[in-house]
C-alpha cells in the first residue's frame, strides 16, 4: 500500500521492512528507518563533531552510547514515541532526519489526544549545500503533520547554529521563538513551530 503526497511517496507502512519515504523533488533521495545493518552508518553521522558539536544530547556521548541511540532508532513502538530516518541518496548515507520525540502537545495533560513532535535534520559535511537538508526536513514535517496527525512540529537549535537558522528562516520562511530561560537540556535557545496550516500550501 502506498500513500502519496505532492512532495513524497510513502512506500509501505511504518513498521514494515520495506517502508520508506521517497522524495518527488530529488531523484533517489529516500528516508528509511535504520536497521541493524545500518546502525554503523547512524553512529558515524552522530559521531562527526561537525554535525553534533552544538547538540548537548550527543556531543559528549561515547561510542557505546551512540550505538545505543542508533539501536533505539531501529524500533517502532505504539503509540509512536519517535520516528528517526536515515537519509540516503541511492545506497549512500547522507545524514539523519526525523522526529526524535513524539508526545502530548501540552506537557500539563499527558492523556490528551493531541500530539506533537520535535523534528531535526543532520547532514554530513560532504553532502551539504545540495538541498538535502531542506528536502529531508520538509518530508519529515509533511509526514508528521499529514500521516501521523500531529498538531504541531517543533524544531529547536542553538542560536550559533547558523546553517539551521538559515534553513528554517530563509528556506521555510519561519521566525523562531527565542528562549528567555537560557538553553534547554539539548542546548537549544531557539524554537520554530509548524502547525497544521503549514500543510495547506505545501502538501
Automatic annotation (TrEMBL):
Domain of life: Eukaryota
InterPro entries referenced in this protein's UniProt entry, alphabetically: Acyl_CoA_acyltransferase, GNAT_dom
UniProt protein name: N-acetyltransferase domain-containing protein
Coiled-coil intervals, chain numbering: none
Gene3D superfamilies named among the record's database cross-references: 3.40.630.30
SUPFAM superfamilies tied to this protein: Acyl-CoA N-acyltransferases (Nat)
Any Pfam family hit: Acetyltransf_3
Domain N-acetyltransferase: 29-169
